[in-house]
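Page 37, continued from 36.
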């Protein structure tokens, strides 16, 4: 038997983990700054809440259909596309701020697209871990992913608020860099992110979606 390589020496896992940590940090920063900007633009707490709801709601609702689609799409492309879309939306807000042309509709679209992209990215990276980490190490790998999520939640939003205090555009520029870095790191993963033994789902997409909804409906907690 070939001895397992420790996770800290697994370059592909390190690139995937680091890239998604950076992207999640960028999303955490924008998730707090976007409602603050909405409040500053409109003076309405309801508008600020709506912007926050768009991002969080889109990321939550899209996860189930994203899982069905990701079973059919190349993981690497999904991860890179999600990061590129998030980088583009953050850059659009940054440009609007620099030109002093930011409107609430721009924030709403950015929050919606960012949330949808985050839902796809989170689902895809959970699947991608299985392609770069041997089965015996998966519990540790998923635990590290979970710890990364908690750390980002603790640090990302305060960092976003701090940078917003310096200048409203700064957290968005930082987010753009984090998303682009995540895309580059994903592209450098050497292991194929679709196992050669993987067989694309043969069932109709609607049936698989209904199966997922049925599972949720029968889980008391969910």
């Amino acid at each position: 038997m070939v001895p397992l390589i420790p996770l800290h020496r697994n370059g592909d896992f390190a690139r995937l983990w680091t890239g998604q940590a950076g992207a999640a940090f960028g999303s955490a920063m924008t998730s707090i700054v976007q409602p603050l900007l909405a409040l500053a633009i409109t003076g309405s707490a309801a508008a600020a809440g709506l912007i926050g709801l768009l991002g969080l709601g889109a990321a939550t609702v899209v996860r189930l259909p994203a899982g069905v689609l990701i079973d059919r799409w190349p993981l690497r492309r999904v991860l890179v596309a999600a990061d590129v879309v998030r980088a583009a939306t953050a850059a659009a807000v940054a440009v609007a701020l620099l030109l002093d042309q930011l409107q609430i509709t721009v924030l709403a679209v950015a929050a919606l697209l960012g949330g949808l992209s985050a839902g796809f990215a989170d689902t895809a990276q959970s699947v991608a871990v299985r392609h770069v980490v041997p089965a015996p190490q998966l519990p540790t790998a998923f635990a590290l992913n979970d710890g990364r999520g908690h750390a980002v939640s603790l640090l990302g939003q305060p960092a976003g608020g701090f940078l917003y205090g310096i200048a409203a555009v700064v957290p968005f520029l930082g987010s753009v860099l984090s998303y682009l870095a995540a895309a580059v790191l994903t592209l450098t993963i050497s292991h194929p992110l679709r196992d050669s033994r993987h067989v694309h789902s043969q069932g109709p997409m609607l049936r698989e979606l209904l199966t997922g909804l049925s599972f949720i409906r029968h889980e008391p907690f969910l």
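The chain has a mean pLDDT of 91. Flag for discussion at group meeting. The chain has one domain: 10-192+203-217.
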